[in-house]
Amino acid sequence: RNMSSAGPEGRKKMRECEGLIDSLVYYIQGAIADHEPNDKATENCVCILHNLSYQLEIELPESYAQSIYMQRRNTSNNDKTPGCFGTRSRKVKEKQQDTPLPEEKSNPKGVESLWHSTLIRIYLSLIAKSTRNYTQEASLGALQNLTAGTGPMPFAVARTVVQKANGLPGIRAMLHVSHPAVKKTAVSLLRNLSRNTSLQNDIAREVLPDLVSVLPECVPGCDVACETTASICYTLFNLTQSSSHNARLLLSSHGLPKVIAISMNDSNMFSKASRAASVLLYSLWSHTDLHSAYKK
């Protein structure tokens, strides 16, 4: 677990170590099957997999990445390396949401397991069944890592979480836990998922009222809560930017007074949350059909 957080070279060596990832997955599967999702060894295994999934898309060997993305549509010459997903144009990002991954292998090995639907379902199962905060946070964090890029892999993982594995109810429950790091990671995962335009209506229907309910009445006084508040605002921005229906849902969930109050705190210490709330307000105002409702 310590070695897996030693940086890019350490992660590379551990991903290449034959049988290591398979053994970690095997152990967690056994723990879930035996109804023991709370033991310390399971926590350690999940934390290792969480670390090994960090920047996975960027750090994959180029030859390996090319085989994964063989169905990817041709983009400009500048976009051929696996590390440049973050700089692509909006048009390319929208294209890639429709670009499927090659068919999943029924028996994945090694690094292939890290984004396979089997492991995604394991994470979601641990989120639902474990009461150990570090295990919950690491499971959410692994999914956050896997959905962080803008290439085909993150969007394929996002679709699996939302549509194929019905993962939103478990993630939604994590918004209401008392542990601030778990809540923060759950919100960060939802922010990643909400970037996928094809999933936004599903996400809004399932979790938008819950996001509004955990939004504070004003800017909170600690850094973690402040970052969580900013992430909630940006998630709501993603969900409402192109949807008047979702903006109305935010309104009916009594979110507007909270967002206004957060936006009005101009203290430097809390500017991240206030700025995010202001961006959200600006976007909400673009729905001209809702102006009279906003004024009321």
Describe it:
The chain is mostly helical. The protein folds into two domains: 1-64 and 109-171; 196-295. The protein has 17 helices and no strands. Helix 8 runs parallel beside helix 11. It is elongated, with a radius of gyration of 20 Å. It starts with 7 loop residues before the first helix and ends with a helix. Mean pLDDT is 86; it is low at 71-99.
Descriptive labels:
single chain, 296 residues, mainly alpha, 2 domains, 17 helices, 63% helix, elongated
Query: How confident is the prediction overall: mean pLDDT?
Result: 86
Helix/strand class: mainly alpha
Q: Main beta sheet, described?
A: none
Order of helices and strands: HHHHHHHHHHHHHHHHH
Strand content: under 5%
- Evaluate the radius of gyration: 20 Å
Gap between N and C termini: 54 Å
How many individual β-strands? 0
The rough form would be described as elongated
Q: How much helical structure, as a percent, in the residues?
A: 55-70%
How many distinct helices? 17
Q: Which stretches are low in confidence, meaning pLDDT under 50 for 5 or more residues running?
A: 71-99
Q: What is the domain total for the residues?
A: 2
Region (Disordered): 72-109
Keywords: Cell adhesion, Cell junction, Repeat
Subcellular location: Cell junction
Biased composition (Basic and acidic residues): 94-107
Task: Give the arrangement of secondary structure elements.
Blueprint lengths: L7 H9 L3 H14 L6 H13 L3 H4 L2 H7 L21 H8 L19 H13 L3 H14 L5 H13 L3 H7 L5 H14 L6 H15 L8 H18 L3 H9 L3 H8 L7 H15 L5 H5 L1
